[in-house]
Structures are given as C-alpha cells and as structure tokens.
Amino acid sequence: MRAPFDTFATRGPNVATLLTVLLTLAACGTTPQKPASHNVPLPSGGKVKMPVRQDPTLPALPAAGSGRGGYYKDDGPGDNPPANLRDVPDAEVRNEPYSTRSNRPYVVFGKTYTPITDNEPFKQKGTGTWYGKKFHGQRTSSGEIYDMYKMTAAHPTLPIPSYARVTSIDSGEQVIVRINDRGPFHATRVIDVSYTAALKLGFLGKGSHQVVVERLLPADIDAILAARAAPKPVPSVVAISIDTPVETGAVVQPEVSTQMPPVDATVAMPAPAALASGFYLQLGAYSRADNAESGRSRLAPYAAALGTLGVVQAGNLFRLYGGPFSSRAEAARAAANLPESTGIKPIVIER
Question: Which ranges of 86-217 would DSSP assign to H, the alpha helix?
Fold first, then answer.
C-alpha cells in the first residue's frame, strides 16, 4: 500500500552555495564520474545528495533521501531513469478476473475501504500524486512488483487489477494506467500514479495535479481490443466528407436511435486524397451511416468546442470525429468540456 506524496517544497541548503561547491569540485579532478547521485560536502560539514539526470528532457528533481523536495519520507525519483520515458505507451488493457485477496474490505488509519467489484461506471475528480524510488521493486497489493517506470497506479477502491483513464485538468494530458496497488489514503487525494505516468501527465516536477479518474469497464476494454485487432482499411467512402484520420484503436460507442431517414450511400462522396494531420476526438463508431449522422446532429450544438464534425467510413464502421486540434492537450480539454448528459466518452487520437 502506498502513502501519499506531499507537494514539492523548497527546503535545505542555499542553492548558490551548492552550485559553487559543485563547480569547484568539477575543476579539481579529471576522473570520470559514474552516472549516479553525488554526496556534496557543505561548509557546515554536512552533506547533501544532488541528482544527476541522464535524460535532459526530464525535470530536475531533488534526489530521494536528500531531505529536500517535500517527498513522503525518503521517496523520490530514481538515480538513473531509463531513456525515452515520454514515449512509453499506455498500459496494455485486457479483461482479467479480479483478485479475491486484493478486493476485500480493509482498514487504514481507522477508515474502512470497500473495493469496487461491480461493473458500474466510476468517475472521480481530485488530486493526483505519484510515488517512486521508495517503493520501486517492492510487491504491490496485487502481488505484482512495482516498477515506477511502467504505466501503473494505486487507488483506494478501484478493482485490482483494472484500468483507468487519468486526465490532468491542469495540462490536459491523458493516460491509461493499470490499477495494481492501494493508496493514497488522504481525504483530497484520489490516485497515486507511477513516475512515468506523472511525467506524461505533466506533474512530475510539481508533485501533484488536479485530475479526473475514469474507470474502464470490461465493455470498454472489449471494444478497445476489438477495434485494435481489426484490420485498418483504407477509407473508400465517407458519409460526410471531412479531413479526418481513421483510427482503429478507439472505443466503439453505443449506437444512437434516430427517426431520421437513412443516408443514401449511393450519394456518399469519395474520401479526400489527402487527410489533414493533427489531433481529433473520436465521438462514436456506428455500424449504420444513419446512426452516425444522427450522432453528428445531436452534437451539432457543441460544434464550436468540438471543431468540424464529420463521419468517415472505415470497413463496416462509420466513425464520428471532431477536430482537428493543434495538440493532444487541446483535444483533451475539449473532451472534458463535453457535458456528461450527451453520454459520449470521447477518445483523443492523433494522425
């Protein structure tokens, strides 16, 4: 089980003094240094551990155990994080049975937590935090070994194992993580994500962000896996021609009943020869063109926020898209602003 992080705080020795000492040491020797944290002597006779970053794209963080940064106890970043962590893909979703042992009610700090074991939708807003080196390599509540460089998370009540979509309200970034541990146990904190998930969500350096946590139900996972396994055909016909990419890895939305007459496929326009690049929201995928058109009509009042709405046929499916957006964060913000009353769960895709 994981305890929550405190937000980073500025504490410890004078930074200018530390930099002066570091420069002096660098000038006094030519022996190559190993890529690890250094113990730097201070004028007072003490030592402080300064981190060495192997990847310059990662935020500079106080080393674990340095007494700086406001980490929980001696937690913090690893000394030598792997390269290209920003390119780590989301957790690979799959449906699997819940652990009997990990989903029993339990008590922490006098409070009883009852894990969710039904298939009801779950959406939660609150503070997201991250945990790292202190727990890296230790066994999680699921029995798996915690790896701070994978896309996992701890949650007090979501099923173990399960998957959740986490969206940072501050950055607009979005990831899918595997729930394999318990925590945090704090009234305002809703999830502890791994080091890499926090990096991709944009709050590694701050220690926390306001996030939205949404559980992926078994039906959502089935739809993702089915769409991912389907061949990616070249679109030949569109019900409404727009410059929108075809994406096979998005969730198939339920079909919407309509009283509108079916779209005559014989008058559908050919797909454009060149498709615009950018980020889009998939707003639905339908087996019938008339249902896709009905979905587009229902969302027309939100077109100012969703961008150009259109339907692209890919194989036997008609996909409804909105966009394009200049960045993934902009698309995620547009998705977050779509009223829940629409019943739509947008998926951000990139072409």
Answer: 195-201
